[in-house]
Design goal:
Shape: globular
Helix content: 55-70%
Radius of gyration: 15 Å
Bound molecules: fe (ii) ion
Number of helices: 7
Distance between the termini: 27 Å
Largest sheet: 3 strands, mixed
Low-confidence stretches: none
């Protein structure tokens, strides 16, 4: 529910519809309508469709708590929960955005280095 509730809060604070949509659609690589039903979420579109929506969703997939992680970390996390469709979507989103970026996005871990509270980890 945090994506839905977060989007509601953003809307209440007058943020643009684009930002509200980014927040609502940022979970994993989006939620399909079957996920929406299974999770008991209010009806709506939870799939990232714009480039900005996809980038934020996938950036979130590559951070866990205060660590930058390879995308496989989030894929494995979803598989462990039995959310195989979601895991496949993360893999597909990773491929799509890596292709647009021109290199595997997992290489970002090696580029950004280490920040005070942001440590890259390999899984
Ligand atoms: Fe989130």
């Amino acid at each position: 529910m945090h994506a839905y509730v977060g989007a509601q809060i953003a809307a209440e604070h007058g943020l643009s519809q684009e930002i509200v949509d980014i927040i609502r659609k940022h979970t994993g690589a989006g939620l399909d309508q079957e996920d929406v039903r299974e999770l008991g979420l209010p009806p709506g579109d939870y799939m990232p469709r714009t480039l900005e929506e996809k980038i934020v969703a996938h950036a979130d997939n590559m951070v866990s708590d205060n660590r930058v992680v390879v995308h496989q970390f989030s894929v494995d996390k979803l598989r462990a929960k039995g959310a195989d469709r979601g895991a496949v979507r993360i893999e597909m989103l990773h491929q799509e955005l890596s292709q647009l970026y021109g290199r595997d996005l997992d290489t970002i871990l090696g580029l950004i280095g280490e920040y005070p509270k942001l440590k890259g980890v390999r899984v």
